[in-house]
Amino acid sequence: MYIAMSQFEVANGMAADVKEAFVNRPHLVDHEKGFLGMKVFTPQENENEFWVMTTWTDEISYREWYKEHMKASHEGIPKGLKLVPGSLKVRFFDLVSD
């Protein structure tokens, strides 16, 4: 299993809009080759911070999706959204045990 984990923090009071966008997302990625699932988290101590975890069967499937479809999948981002500078981080993981 391959995991892509994104982290970011909303800077301009639009956290509720971001949450709504995730809840009502169009599910474009759901039927992509190798896609297993997506979970979105916010830490209890900071509702403006988001962690987005997508799971894939393998890195190649993720890379193909990213290259071909990532832009379309992000069209639902609320207009006017601003992030805390430097808060966007993307990390990649291999599953060791579950």
CATH class: Alpha Beta
Gyration radius over CA: 14 Å
Class from helix and strand fractions: alpha+beta
Task: Find the count of extended strands (DSSP E, 2+ residues).
Answer: 4
Molecular shape: globular
Main beta-sheet strand count, sense and barrel state: 4 strands, antiparallel
Reported by name, the CATH topology is Alpha-Beta Plaits
| Spatial sequence of strands, sheet with the most strands | 2-3-1-4
Q: What is the count of DSSP helices, taking H or I runs of 4+ residues?
A: 2
Q: Beta-strand level of the residues, as a percent range?
A: 25-35%
C-alpha end-to-end distance: 11 Å
Count of discrete domains: 1
| Average pLDDT figure | 93
- What is the string of helix and strand elements? EHEEHE
Low-confidence stretches: none
- CATH architecture type: 2-Layer Sandwich
Which bin fits the share of residues in helices? 10-25%
InterPro entries: ABM_dom, Dimeric_a/b-barrel
Pfam families: ABM
Organism: Pontibacter amylolyticus
Protein name: ABM domain-containing protein
Notable characteristics:
98 residues, alpha+beta, Alpha-Beta Plaits, 4-stranded antiparallel β-sheet, 4 strands, ABM domain-containing protein, Dimeric_a/b-barrel, ABM_dom
Could you describe the 3D structure shown?
- It holds the Pfam family ABM.
- InterPro entries: ABM_dom, Dimeric_a/b-barrel.
- This is ABM domain-containing protein.
- Residues 2-92 form the ABM domain.
- A hairpin with a 7-residue loop joins β2 (35-41) and β3 (49-56).
- The termini are close together.
- 24% of the residues lie in helices and 30% in strands.
- The chain has helices spanning 15-23, 59-73; strands at 2-9, 35-41, 49-56, 89-94.
- The chain is globular.
- The protein has a four-stranded antiparallel sheet.
- The chain contains two helices and four strands; from the N terminus they run βαββαβ.
- With 98 residues, the chain is an alpha+beta fold.
- The protein has a single domain, classed as 2-Layer Sandwich (Alpha-Beta Plaits).
